[in-house]
C-alpha cells in the first residue's frame, strides 16, 4: 500500500502536463510466468519444494498513461505425496491445482512516449479456485474467500530498443511491447488456511489501440 501511494504521489506532478499531450494505447495483454512460493504450512514436506511453477494471463483497460484497471487469471499445478488416512503417514500421490483470480488497479510511472524503463505498482482483490486430487480419496475442490493482492514491477520498452521494427508494427493495432519483471503477494483464505503466497514472474506486455499514432498524441496546450 505504501509503495502504491508513493508512486501515485510521484506521478501527480507529471499527470496534468502529460495528459495534455500523451495518450497511451487503451488496452493491454500480459503473458507471464515464474515461481510461486505458497504460504501453506508444510508445503515443501508434501510437494518436495517450497516453490512451484506459476503462469498468468492479464488484461487491462488504460484510463490514461499512468492508471489502468484490469483482471488476471493465474495457474499453478504441483504433484507430491498425500497423507494415508489409516496412519497419517506420507504415501500415495496428490495433485494440487490453484487458479487465483484478481481484479486490480495499477499505477504506472509512464511519463513519456519513448521511456525506456517504466516502474509500476498495484493493488487488487483476489479469490482462488483450488483442487486436490488425492490417490484413494475423494477430490477436494472449492474456492477461497476474497482477499488482497499487491504487485510491484518494472517494464523495459522493446519499442525503444528496436524503434525500426516498432514503427512498422505500430501501423497496426499493436502499439507498444514491453519485457517486464514483477513480484506479487496475495492472500486468499479458505477455512482459516491461506492459499496465497509470493510470486516472481517474467513476462511480455502488449499494448493495443485502434487509433492512429497521430490521434493518440495530443498537442501540448499553449
Describe what is shown at a glance.
By secondary structure, this protein is α+β, with helices and mostly antiparallel strands. The chain has helices at 2-18, 43-47, 158-161, 163-169, 213-216, and strands at residues 27-38, 52-62, 67-83, 90-108, 117-134, 140-143, 147-157, 174-187, 189-190, 193-194, 197-208.
Class from secondary-structure proportions: alpha+beta
Biggest pleated-sheet summary: 8 strands, antiparallel, barrel
Structure annotation, total helices:
5
What is the 3D shape?
elongated
Name the helix and strand elements from N-terminus to C-terminus, one letter apiece: HEHEEEEEEHHEEEEH
Task: Report the mean per-residue pLDDT as an integer.
Answer: 84
Strand content: over 45%
